[in-house]
Amino acid sequence: MFILIRKEDLTSTMSSYLIDQIAGTENITVRPKTEIIEARGSDRLEELVIKDIETGNTTEEKAGALYIFIGAKPFTDWIKMDIIKDSKGFIETGRELKNHDNFSRIWKLERDPYLLETSCAGVFAAGDVRANAMNRVAAAVGEGSMAISFVHKYLAEVK
């Protein structure tokens, strides 16, 4: 099993106890400064084309499975609306918004924000991009389902 990372090592993206567990697991090899540039297969994944970032050389590796971990940075810089984020860029939602100085200036509705609602009424956030979220796939899926319910509730009130 391989862990491919674009950086030199895992220290900036992972807790030290997890790094130690990986290092202590014999069948896991960390390959730094690499990235996947192509996934191939007919009816299923069969092969990955892997690029060495420093040299530009590519290799083809047999693969039967692939898990993509996008990291701990939320990448919310593209959001240009009046949406409150924490110091790391994660989007604040729900009642927690009331703890921010800007909230009363931004929020124009009489009601409090719904659980997954951002400081922009009718805009919801779910999963890892949300501040204080449980960073697990199952939690993100559940929050996504909840967000749909809140969207319907919001749309019913603005009719």
How does the SSE layout of this entry go?
Layout: E1 2-4, H1 16-23, E2 29-31, E3 34-40, E4 47-52, E5 58-62, H2 103-106, H3 137-157
Parallel strand pairs: 1-2
Antiparallel strand pairs: 3-4, 4-5
Radius of gyration (CA) equals 20 Å
- Would you identify the regions where 5 or more consecutive residues have pLDDT less than 50? none
Envelope shape:
elongated
The topology string of helices and strands comes to: EHEEEEHH
Helix content percent band? 10-25%
Descriptive notes:
With 159 residues, the chain is of the alpha+beta class. 21% of the residues lie in helices and 15% in strands. It has three helices and five strands; from the N terminus they run βαββββαα. It has helices spanning 16-23, 103-106, 137-157, and strands at residues 2-4, 29-31, 34-40, 47-52, 58-62. The chain has a three-stranded antiparallel beta sheet with strand order 3-4-5, with no helix packed on it. Strand 3 (34-40) and strand 4 (47-52) form a beta hairpin. It is elongated. The chain starts with a strand and ends with a helix.
